[in-house]
Amino acid sequence: MYTIGEVAKLVGVSTHTLRYYEKENIILPDRNEHGERKYTESHLQWLKFVLKLKETQMPITKIKEYAYLYSEGEHTAINRLKLLEDHKSSIETQLKTLEETNNMLEHKITSYKEKILKRKEN
Amino acid sequence: MYTIGEVAKLVGVSTHTLRYYEKENIILPDRNEHGERKYTESHLQWLKFVLKLKETQMPITKIKEYAYLYSEGEHTAINRLKLLEDHKSSIETQLKTLEETNNMLEHKITSYKEKILKRKEN
DNA sequence: ATAGTGGTTTGAGTAAACTCTAAGTCAAAT
DNA sequence: ATTTGACTTAGAGTTTACTCAAACCACTAT
Question: Which residues from A are below 8 Å from B99, CB to CB?
């Protein structure tokens, strides 16, 4: 069981963000006798998954949608599958763009280096 | 020479966005006798480059910085090189995250499919 | 000649995702 | 006993990157 501060440190987000995610029904930790948030190992796993989705540009609204479907139980599995498949295809698009741009930068960088070298030769 | 509307269509952004980029000194087209913006082929190339940077998560402030350096001439080449190298390394980080997440989704998706299949067998 | 289309400006408004503030509770340490 | 530090809440404020509104101008088509 982790406090909000521990979780924040562990995953690298602020406590503000964790409370915000809770307000948005993305992650709903338990509470102790003082009303303080308590995150279990499985909350932590879920949070890490959420952060991966976020890092790969899934908007919070979509993440909320997925969280909602999950909370609704087994019969939403098809919807969740669809959502993940859509995101996977978005990731593949992003991979293409990044690879293209990476190549472009590779070229630009080499030509910049040549230009600077030639300038130094004078 | 392209009008703002033509450029917008060609690259897939709104005219609003193009005017916004101009206000931010990212792309400064010519003007005709009526004060209307005229984009040359090289403005278009620059814009496409800018959009690639944006699609690969470079923030507008960094893009502005690059545009500013470019406008300052040859002696800023080293700074531009540095900026592009930094961005390239950001792209490589993104590629890693995307690939990892893609694999994770691959697994999740197959297990969802199995789960749904098994349910249908009943 | 008037309606439509596409351009202009300044400045305000919006959406997303936090991020911070104020005012408070609680438990441990000095 | 009081300070410190970590937690609580509701609600306001911020940043980024647009996006829209209002009021205007110029050309074309009916």
Answer: 95
